[in-house]
Design brief:
29% of the residues lie in helices and 21% in strands. The protein contains 8 helices and 11 strands. It has helices at 13-17, 36-39, 42-47, 49-64, 70-77, 94-98, 156-164, 217-230, and strands spanning 6-11, 30-31, 34-35, 83-88, 103-105, 108-115, 122-124, 142-146, 168-172, 194-197, 210-213. Helix 5 runs parallel beside helix 8.
């Protein structure tokens, strides 16, 4: 890796959406016909853990049938020339399936579970469904290894450190309005080349080091990949 420029890629829900994985922001605050407060908060878990487990079991089954799209493959292809760190808001593993080697999941991982009592006890799921009564080694219920609304983002410090060492930033498939994740763009070194690929350009002041590609991830990201590899 020595001598290669470092690209930090910040990916959001728009990248997964093109592989058929729905996001709560696509449908007036509903996520697969559920209010986010029903399935993605600590209070929801305390109130109805069976519903929360069933919801994430459905997401896991949906992921089994999803495939990486051209945006995922374009991001992975950047590794032919650059050191690439992917920081993603997405909980699927499609970046890894496409070949990206270093992926930081800000909001957790769908294919992992953890103890509800000991958050450091994290396990790769060995089966698609997690049920009430499935326990960690210390006897406590397993829950999705996902950062819910109202919870801290454990990987945020790592992501900020990686962003501060970037030579180039690519933001793809995100509206930059989910905090604290969106604050990553303020951690990059001043003046480095930065690119945004998204059909919805947010209403914010972009300095002249930003290049804006107002296209879906699966269209704009391959174009940007060709541009960056051709440099």
């Amino acid at each position: 890796m020595e001598g290669k420029e470092r690209i930090v890629v910040f990916s959001g829900a728009g990248v997964s959406a093109e592989s058929g994985l729905k996001t709560f922001r696509d449908n007036d605050g509903l996520w697969e016909n559920h209010e986010v407060t029903e399935v993605a908060t600590p209070e929801a878990w305390q109130r109805n853990p069976d519903l929360v487990l069933r919801f994430y079991n459905m997401r896991r089954k949906q992921l089994e049938n999803a495939k990486p799209n051209p945006a995922h493959y374009a991001i992975a292809a950047l590794e032919s020339k650059y050191e690439v760190v992917v920081i993603t808001q997405n909980i699927d593993d499609l970046h890894e399936q496409a070949g990206s080697k270093k992926v930081i999941h800000l909001h957790g991982e769908l294919k992992k579970v953890r103890s509800e009592k000991f958050p450091d006890l994290v396990y790769q799921t060995k089966k698609p469904e997690i049920q009430l009564g499935d326990l960690c080694e210390k006897g406590f219920q397993l829950r999705p290894h996902v950062v819910w609304f109202g919870e801290a983002v454990p990987m945020m410090d790592v992501a900020l450190q990686e962003s501060s060492k970037a030579d180039m930033l690519v933001v793809v498939g995100t509206s930059l309005n989910v905090y604290p994740a969106a604050s990553l763009i303020h951690a990059i070194p001043d003046g480095i080349p930065a690119y945004l690929v998204d059909p919805n350009i947010p209403n914010m002041d972009f300095s002249n080091n930003w290049t804006l590609l107002q296209e879906k991830a699966g269209v704009g990201m391959p174009k940007l990949c060709d541009l960056l590899i051709g440099q």
